[in-house]
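Assess this:
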Amino acid sequence: MRRVALTLVLTITALSMMSCGKKEKDIAETIEEIYDDGADDGSTSDNISREANEDSADGLVSVLKDYNAQLDGRWQTASMSYEADGSMQPEFYVEFTENEIKYGHLKDEEFVVDHVDKIESMLFGEKCVIQATASTGVKYTYQTSESDSNILEYYETWNEEEYPDAYRGGASLSRCE
């Protein structure tokens, strides 16, 4: 019973601290530090039940890394636009950080930020659900597609009941290869 409670507490704590991309190592390290306070005598931290085993902590770290991997890398909008040289490019390339969604373009293969929106909440599970507010005040949601985990569908609402009318395919994202 203690293992279940421990896993639940660690999961809730870690998920509340969890962020995209660069923070995944910090979260994993934090959990490992909680589990093992560095004592050489083999004892565990006072924060963890002595009945907890290393496999449960390792499993939790692995799950958190899997969640973070859902948003790693660069994404691109489905909508395309013409560049000055006549080539077609995605309207925006997108990168996720701890609390922001960065929209930009590529210049000489480098990501250049055009604008940034604020992430209000992130939920991970079978689907990744990100609720954000645009600089213009528009509230929107990205949600993992049911058919492809490399696609984030865009809904111009936070209310799931409004999704059918608020879906914007051109603003949806696909993971860059």
